[in-house]
Each structure stands twice: as C-alpha cells, then as structure tokens.
Amino acid sequence: MAANVNIFSGDSSKYLAEKIAGHFGKELGKVTINHFMDGEYQPCFEETIRGTDVFLVQSTNPPADNILELLLLIDAAKRASAKRVVALIPYFGFARQDRKDKPRVSIGAKLMTNLLVAAGVDRIITMDLHSDQIQGFVDIPVDHMYASSIFIPFLKEMNLPNLTMASPDTGGTKRAAAYAKFLNTDLVICFKHRKVANEVDSIRIIGDVKGKDIVLVDDIIDTAGTITKAADLMMDMGASSVRAACTHPVFSGSAFERIEKSALTEVLVTDTLNREQTGKIRVLSTASIFADVIKRIHKNKSISTHFGFSIIL
C-alpha cells in the first residue's frame, strides 16, 4: 500500500517532512523548485505520482512565499494526475485573521482556505488551529490534530509537585481549562490589555500562584511579550516555577532574547516550525503523529484515536 503514497515537502518544512517520511517508512519524495532571476519560482516533481495519494508537507508561516509554494505544489500534483492531494500544514499561517473584528479588514484565514481549495487540494491536515471555526471555512475534510497528545504525557512524566495550568490571556482560557481538567490541577488566568498589536500594556493574574509550578499553555508564541511578562509577574507573586507549553514557536523579533532573560524555566514547543532546541527551548516532535495520520488516511481508516484529548479541548 505504501507504494501508492508519496510524501513531498516545500522549503519551509523539509526538516519535519523528512522525519514524517522516516516514521512512515519511506524516503521523502524528490521535488525541485526552480527559481528565476525575477524572484518567480516553479516546483517540479522528479518522480511519477500518477494515481497515488500525494501528501504535501508545508507550514504556511510568513513570508507569503510559503503559502504560494504550497499552492503551486498542489497545482502541479493535480496536473500530474495524482489520485488525491492532501495538504499537511503543521502550522496554518494567517489563522489569527479568523473574523472581521473591525471595519474594512480582511479575513485572512478564510482567504487562505479559499486559495487551497481553488488550487485543488482534497484534504487538509493541520495542528492546533488558532480557532476551531476555521475548519468550517471549507467544504473538504480537515483533520485537526492537537498538541495536547504530546504535551500532556510529557507534563505527567515531569511529575511537578504543585502543577497548575495557566492561560496567558482570556482567549486561551478554554484550552488551559481543558488541560487543568485532564491533569486535575488548579487554573490561573492572565488578563492582558493591549494598546497596539504585539505590545502588552498591562497584565493581571486571576488565581493563586504562590508555591505553584505554573505551566502557561498557548497555541502560538509570537513576540513572547505576553508569556514572559506573565512569567515574571507570577514569580514575583511567589510561584515556585513557571514554564510554557506552546505548539507553534513563531518567535518573531526579539522573542528568543525575551525568553532567555525571563523568569521562565523552559519553553516546550513542537517542531511545526523550524526551531532548534537551544537555551530554554525544548522541542517535542509531531512527526510520529502526522505519519500515523497519513497511514490511516491512505487506508481510509479512522483517525479518531488521535482526538483523545480533543474531547476536552
């Protein structure tokens, strides 16, 4: 059956795609991307994919070249007579633009899904969308994986004496509450106020942190401004330790420097984006999960076993 499966990658996720292919049991497919002097580029599959299930691994984080590269790969696969084309998008970029929260703005997440469908994708696999509602933006199957299936076992193994889950903002309360419920811990919520995007003006802690081993849970760390301010404040309020568990380590601007200088003991992240394990950053792999999902989709088997934590999320 594996002979009818091909796994390819765009430039942004080759490191993860190679691990996924290894867990699946075959080599990553050969694809070349020809770049022209004017900046234009053209992907080409260097092996036949006629009649096969093609899985394209590509996170769509900025720059925009990543999403455009994925769209061109989808188009090339369809024109090469692939039986089915599946976009495996570990990190779904533009997902924070999931609603019209003020006049005259785009809904970027909807536009991205429209582009994927227009290019001819048959299915989407992703992990920890910023908003679950994005799955409803398309009329094709979306397999939404949860990093909780990685973080929760890891947190259990750490056996922290006074584990308490926390949300870095009110928007992530549902996620943190789900972790707290499953791990049978207390919950702390941070209330932040922003005057402009990516800049926290003030933050307050709701809940008891004194003597607790806090784990802040979030889907994305961008500039790390919120999470580091929350960690510093919690330590000032008497917390024993503060860690963070984040699915997508975007780490824009001076995020690394903020994390290293902060009171955070460590930051647990996944490899949906190309980040090295360094300093306080510990990377946990998603490759085995995605490889198993590929096997199950190819064989038309249920993938509900990977939604074990989604019931509470």
Descriptive terms for the model:
single chain, 313 residues, alpha/beta, five-stranded parallel sheet, 8 helices, 29% helix
Any overview of this molecule?
The chain is an alpha/beta fold. Helices cover about 30% and strands about 25% of the residues. It contains eight helices and 14 strands. A seven-stranded mixed sheet has the order 10-9-8-11-12-13-14, sandwiched between helices. Strands 1-4-5-6-7 form a five-stranded parallel sheet, sandwiched between helices. A hairpin with a 2-residue loop joins strand 9 (about 185-195) and strand 10. Helix 1 crosses helix 8 and helix 2 packs parallel to helix 3 (about 110-120). The longest helix is centred in the first third of the chain and has 15 residues, at about 65-80. It is globular. The chain starts with a strand and ends in a 15-residue tail after the last helix. About 40% of the residues are buried. The mean pLDDT is about 95.
Distance between the termini: 34 Å
| Biggest sheet layout | 7 strands, mixed
Individual helix count: 8
By DSSP, the count of extended strands is: 14
Indicate the mean pLDDT.
93
Task: Give the helix/strand layout.
Layout: E1 5-9, H1 14-24, E2 31-35, E3 41-45, E4 53-57, H2 65-79, E5 84-89, H3 108-119, E6 123-127, E7 142-145, H4 148-158, E8 163-167, H5 173-183, E9 186-196, E10 199-206, E11 213-221, H6 225-236, E12 241-249, H7 255-261, E13 267-270, E14 281-284, H8 287-298
Parallel strand pairs: 1-4, 4-5, 5-6, 6-7, 8-9, 8-11, 11-12, 12-13, 13-14
Antiparallel strand pairs: 2-3, 9-10
Helix pairs in contact: 1-8, 2-3
